[in-house]
Structure prediction request, 261 residues.
Amino acid sequence: MESKIAQAIGMKYAPVAVIFTDDKPEQALQFKEGKWGCVVSMLNAAAKGKTTVFDRKTFGCLGGGTGLGFGNQYANFPGGIENFVSTGNQEFAQSDFGKNVVRNMPAIEHGERYVKSPLLAKQFFDSLPMRDVPAEFIVFKPLDKVAEQEIPKVIIFLVNPDQLSALVVMANYGREGNESAIIPFGAGCHTVCLIPYHEDDAALPRAVVGLVDISARKQVDKDILSFSVPYKMFTELESNVVGSFLEQEVWQNVLERNRVE
Prediction:
């Protein structure tokens, strides 16, 4: 499966398709059961040509399991996820069990400080569109490796600021209004999977700009953000390339600047 948009904006990395399936792809990268890993690192690998796969035992971390759509894994977070992302849980960290956990996750004691208080953090997590996807596996693969019979759930573009600008313009190009792309607060995996899944339920889904998660930034190049769209929005955008600004001189000048660099 090819992408007119990817060609028109001169992408360095392949668009990544998110696919729900009960068939595990052969020779796919996969986290080992019980081992920590970041979903965004697997996304990065897929953008560079690999096929990666997750299931309910190999999603890397509790946040990743939730973000991929394998239910509310935060319910299993030691010391409370609302404490972890805000001010920490010193009482838990000083318990016998907590001391062992803190060795691997020191932020449990002092908090990541991404949200001001546990109350606000709890409200955020309660607002997430949790779901348990109706498939055994979730696959990330380069769009050009998607078979004809496969229907992706979401398409993810990893892009620089110039390319992101073009995609935001394209999101609004064939629509009324000017809010067809959003930048929600959330973990990296929330913004490439969970929130785009939720947008897919809408009659007119929006694009989701992501990877603003500070903890996930080290998994991608410093100038890269994500732009994720449900598949039906992807087909809409693809159909609008011909005749759009992407064929005009102003964008071509911006595109040339990226080629030179």
Notes: Residues 62 and 73 are 5 Å apart (CA to CA). The two ends are 28 Å apart (CA to CA). Residues 73-127 form one domain. The mean pLDDT is 95.
